[in-house]
Amino acid sequence: MMSLLGHHFSFWEQGRKIKKGVNTLIKKHDLGNVLSINGKDCWSFLIFEDTDIYSQWELKTLFLQEVFARGVLTLGTHNISYAHSDEDITRLLNAYNEVFMLLKETIEKNVMDKWLKTEPLVPLFKIR
Length: 128
Description:
Helix content: 40-55%
Strand order of the largest sheet: 3-4-5
CATH superfamily: Aspartate Aminotransferase, domain 1
Order of helices and strands: EEHEEHEHH
Strand content: 15-25%
Shape: globular
Number of strands: 5
Mean pLDDT: 91
Oligomer: single chain
CATH class: Alpha Beta
């Protein structure tokens, strides 16, 4: 544990806040069939699932585009360090709240072409 500006944070504690917050947002936006968070508290990651109309790659591309636009640099992973404050976690979860709302609208209204400004990601490796 390390003191940052008078606060004591641990990797695990900060990571638990992120996982709890992300799970709350997934439930809030009813995205449990499309999105989940896995991994250890100090190193978690978002998992995207295909829908009937969009691949996990299209959804993740839109997610990345929108979190980047909100000033959050992530690839859907949360690699906790001692530098991550409660304010950082709040900023992350606020961005996720906005982006999860957009993902839900995109899926429900079939409007990916309205939002996505680039070509979707493609898997690096393919199963033969």
